Structures are given as C-alpha cells and as structure tokens.
C-alpha cells in the first residue's frame, strides 16, 4: 500500500437535481428588482451536495484531517484536494489500497478507529458484503468515469471501430481472433478490471438484467476468447498505465500492447499528457458499460466534527467551479448538472449495465475468471534461504506466506489470491547458489492436493549459507526461457524475496549485461522484488525498473501481505 498525506475526498450516492444557474430566458413580467435578487442568490450560493438546496457560501470550519482509504487513481485529485483544504480547513490523509482489501479490513474490524472515510471508484461491491452493514455512513458522489476500451488509433481504424457502433460481441470476436492485444487490471485487486469482467459477461449474456449466479458460472466459454487477448496485467490502474507507457516508448522491456481497458478518465489523461507515440481512441460499446461513480463515504463510527468536515468538503467539491476543475485536470465527468462536458468525452450515449445484486454472483464470476477464463500464468518464486533468514523469525514468515498462497488463507482476499487453476508455480530457493527448482501445475479441478504439496515444499525450506541473488536470477531466466519455448501462451513473472544484499556470485552489473542480451520474449519477464530485512532498496528498485516490475515492501515484517499483493500483478 502507498500512504500519502494529502487532502482527500468522498462521494455521495445522492443524485438529486441540483440547480446550477438560471434559465436563459426569464418571464417578461418578472420585475427587474426580483431578477437582480435572483442573480445575487445564484452568484453567491454553493449547492448542498446531499439535499440539492442552496448551501452557505462559507464552507470554512475547524481544522480537521480526514483519514481515508482510497483507490490508487485518486492520486490525480491531490491538487484539487490541497485547494479544498485551504478553502474548507479539511485536509485528507489518503492511504491507497484496493476495494477488495478494504472490504477485508472492514470484515476484520480494522477500519473503525483507524479511518474516517472511504473513497473508491465504487461502493457496489462493498454494499453487497454483509460485513459492511452498519459500517458505511453518508456517501456523496464527486465525479464519474465509465470503464471503456482504449485502442491505439491506427488499430481502431484497422478494426473499423471508429465512428460506427461497436458492441462487446464484436470486440470479443476481434480479441479472440488475435486482431489486437490489451492490458487490464486484476479484477480481484482493482475495480476497473472487475467492472470490465462484469460488463463483458453481462453484455454477452444479453438478458438486459443483472447476472444470476448460474449465468456467472456459465459465461466462461464466451469470456475466454475476449480475455485471450490480454497480454498485460497489473494490480492497480496506476501501474497498468505506467507499464503501458513504458512498453509503448521502449523504456519497459515488455512487448507493446495495442490498448487498455481502464477508466475513461485514465485513458483521457494519458492522451492529454502527450507522451504516447500514438493516441488512444476510446471505444464505448453500444450495449453498455459499468461506470465508476466515486462515492466519498464517511464511516458511521466518525465523530460529529468529522461528519461536519465531510459535509463541508463534499459541498465544496460539488460546486460548479470545482467540478469544472475536476473535469479539466482529472478528466472525470461532473457529478452535478450544469457543467458542460468537454469535447474530449465525445457524443456517445452511455448505456449503464446492471451490476450484480449479490456477493455470490460476484464471487462466482471471479472464481470462474481466475480458474477458467484468464490466460494461465507462470510464476517463478526465487526465495532467499541464506543464513540471515534464521534471524527474527524470518523463515517461519516465509513458510506462512507460501502456505497462505497455497490455500491456508481463507479470507475474502485470500480466496482470490491463492495459486489458481492451470497456473504453473516454480519454487527456486537459493543461498550460496541456486538450489533445485520445484515445478507444480495447479489443476483446474480439485487443486487442493497440489496446493498441499506446494505448502509442504515451502515449509521444508531451511536457512544457511551466503546470498547469491543474481546468480540465481540468471538461473531463473534460463528456466523461464525453456518454459516460454515450450509454452509461450502464459503470463510469466519472477518474484524475488531476499532479506539481504548480494554476497556471492554474479553482481547486478553482470546480471544486467546478460539480461540485456536475452531474447525479447525472455526480457519481457518482469521481476517483482520483495523488500525484506536488510534488502538493498536502491538496487532492488533498479532491478524492478530494468525488468519492468515493481517492488513490494515487507520490511515491517508483513511478508504475507506483500506476497498477497503481488498476486494482482502475476
């Protein structure tokens, strides 16, 4: 998770009509004095974000800090929130995490007392969980953004997707035929990915109603073609965007992809930044989308002062001028009427697809996606078993992390982050030199016996010896190359867990020289280092950058959490 101290926001579910101005023509019999009075009222009043009535123009109050769990894409709101802090006295401390992780923390009872509010792209999933009942208070919508497909303009032109109606079935057919590739977030880690799965499944069923549990289970064959074209995955919308840009510009060694499924706001922001070799053409499927409505939600456990701070902040954010700024800077759609949409949003009519109405449907859809639909993955776990892993209970922490991925974690998050059906898992322990790799393939049906073997193999690891990080990474890439040649149609990644610096064998420079000369398909395999113990942070971050991965911080001892979070990226 990334913690940032900055002003923050929360959104309200209320969609009451809010007056934002006068008609262009007034009755000719209206007295001039009354007209002037009306103009003064309109010019001075702010709009109450919940009732739709005129609110006091003075939104100042006692200095208050709201502690908020939020979605990662809301980093783009920080400049607006800093301005809001000056205007209202309300500052926001944002901690970025995923919706599913937030739901888990609510279920565990760790939200009350630690946070004042939630601000995610949607509360729909949270609203379906029985654990959230009584936890969520008032919600205020701040902006909105549909999840759509963005394709490189030349690809969209080649497919005939520009200036003509295109539905999800046509997009799925092109994807299944290999006519384009795209990146998308992990649907168990990010709402943009889950919204895409819901949209495609609902549209292809074609009933016009929310999916039933039976329909969710039966959509796997229809979805398989569509998701076969996904060649880039990520645990957050922010990292997905960075990886796409890196591949498009050649700074990331992975192959370029043709497009992204992401929030409209993210895709428009990428175009506006001007650093793409080719702009993205946004495709709005005619049979519908799922829209993020960004509710800023105060928790029921919040104090009266906090609730008042939430009210002042959300009223400020829903004023016309601020809504205009949110649209201009973050490319989100306004939450209130009266703010004309910018030309970049186009003229397509958005059809909103129904969201599932039960958590059982969501869970069935996600389970089917991981075990049957998603492109199968291959992950090589390069695990430090040097002598330093005998200190501070480190080896038992590693045993626990592997056991949880092998099914010991039955929590809301854990059930979707375990090793999945069709997945290849390689355990490559090392100390003074690489040890014998152990390869497991998790079956689609009855995976538990294989999961138990993975857990047992992990639990048998013992500590001793020096730390040959880069010699072992070279061995991991040799193994990856052999596996890719045998079966290229998999996501392949390397997870490196080390608690110290390299002490023997090849160094980083030697590894880099060999890596730079590997075949393109092998150089596309990212390394995700886990910072643990006395890891060389700068070198691990450089390793991640060179290979197209990212680092995960477990130096506070939370190796379980780091290994779980990585699952959204592999």
Task: Describe the structure using short key phrases.
six-stranded mixed β-sheet; disordered N terminus; 21 strands; D-Maltodextrin-Binding Protein, domain 2; 570 residues; 3 domains
Structure description:
40% of the residues lie in helices and 18% in strands. The protein has 570 residues and is of the alpha/beta class. The chain folds into three domains: 2-142 and 294-340, D-Maltodextrin-Binding Protein, domain 2 (3-Layer(aba) Sandwich), CATH 3.40.190.10; 145-291, 3-Layer(aba) Sandwich (D-Maltodextrin-Binding Protein, domain 2); 376-566, 3-Layer(aba) Sandwich (Rossmann fold), CATH 3.40.50. Strands 1-5-4-6-14-7 form a six-stranded mixed β-sheet. Helix 6 (168-176) crosses helix 9 (220-227). The two termini are 17 Å apart. Residues 1-56 have low confidence and may be disordered.
């Amino acid at each position: 998770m990334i913690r940032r101290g900055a002003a923050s926001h929360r959104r309200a579910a209320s969609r009451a009509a809010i007056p934002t101005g006068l008609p262009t023509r007034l009755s000719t019999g209206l007295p001039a004095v009354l007209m002037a009075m009306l103009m003064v009222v309109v010019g001075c009043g702010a709009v109450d974000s919940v009732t739709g009535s005129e609110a006091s123009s003075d939104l100042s109050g006692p200095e208050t800090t709201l502690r908020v769990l939020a979605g990662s894409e809301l980093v783009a709101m920080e400049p607006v929130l800093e301005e809001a802090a000056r205007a209202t006295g309300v500052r926001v401390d944002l901690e970025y995490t995923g919706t599913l992780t937030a739901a888990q923390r609510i279920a565990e009872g760790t939200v009350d007392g630690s946070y004042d509010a939630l601000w995610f792209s949607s509360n729909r999933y949270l609203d379906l969980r029985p654990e959230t009942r009584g936890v969520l208070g008032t919600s205020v919508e701040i902006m909105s953004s549909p999840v759509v497909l963005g394709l490189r303009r030349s690809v969209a032109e080649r497919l005939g997707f520009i200036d003509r109606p295109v539905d999800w079935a046509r997009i799925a057919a092109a994807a299944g035929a290999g006519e384009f590739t795209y990146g998308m977030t992990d649907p168990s880690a990010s709402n943009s990915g889950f919204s895409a799965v819901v949209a495609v499944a609902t549209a292809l069923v074609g009933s016009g109603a929310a999916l039933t549990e039976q329909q969710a289970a039966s959509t796997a064959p229809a979805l398989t073609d569509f998701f076969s074209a996904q060649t880039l995955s990520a645990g957050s919308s922010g990292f997905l965007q960075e990886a796409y840009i890196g591949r498009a510009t050649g700074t990331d060694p992975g192959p370029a992809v043709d497009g992204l499924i992401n929030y409209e706001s993210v895709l428009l922001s990428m175009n506006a930044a001007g650093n793409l070799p080719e702009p993205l053409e946004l495709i709005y499927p005619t049979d519908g989308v799922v829209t993020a409505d960004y509710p800023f939600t105060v928790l029921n456990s919040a104090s009266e002062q906090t609730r008042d701070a939430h009210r002042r902040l959300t009223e400020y954010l829903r004023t016309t001028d601020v809504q205009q700024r949110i649209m201009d800077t973050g490319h989100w759609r306004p939450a209130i009427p009266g703010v004309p949409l910018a030309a970049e949003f186009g003229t397509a009519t958005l059809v909103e697809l129904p969201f599932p109405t039960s958590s059982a449907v969501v869970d069935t859809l996600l389970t089917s996606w991981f075990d049957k639909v998603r492109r199968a993955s291959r992950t090589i776990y390069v695990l430090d078993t040097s002598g330093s892993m005998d200190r501070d209970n480190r080896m038992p922490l590693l045993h626990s992390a592997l056991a949880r991925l092998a099914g010991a974690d039955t929590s809301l998050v854990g059930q979707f982050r375990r090793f999945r059906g069709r997945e290849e898992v390689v355990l490559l322990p090392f100390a003074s030199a690489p040890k014998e790799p152990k390869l497991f393939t998790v079956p689609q049906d009855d995976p538990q016996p294989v999961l138990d073997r993975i857990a047992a193999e992990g639990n048998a690891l013992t500590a001793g010896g020096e730390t040959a990080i880069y010699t072992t990474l070279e061995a991991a890439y040799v193994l990856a190359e052999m596996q890719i040649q045998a079966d290229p149609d998999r996501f392949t990644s390397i997870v490196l867990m080390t608690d110290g610096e390299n002490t023997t064998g090849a160094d980083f420079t030697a590894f880099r020289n060999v890596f730079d000369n590997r075949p393109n398909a092998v150089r596309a395999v990212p390394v995700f280092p886990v910072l643990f113990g006395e890891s060389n942070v700068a070198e691990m971050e450089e390793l991640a950058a060179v290979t197209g991965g990212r680092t995960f911080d477990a130096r506070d001892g939370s190796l379980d959490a780091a290994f779980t979070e990585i699952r959204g990226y592999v």
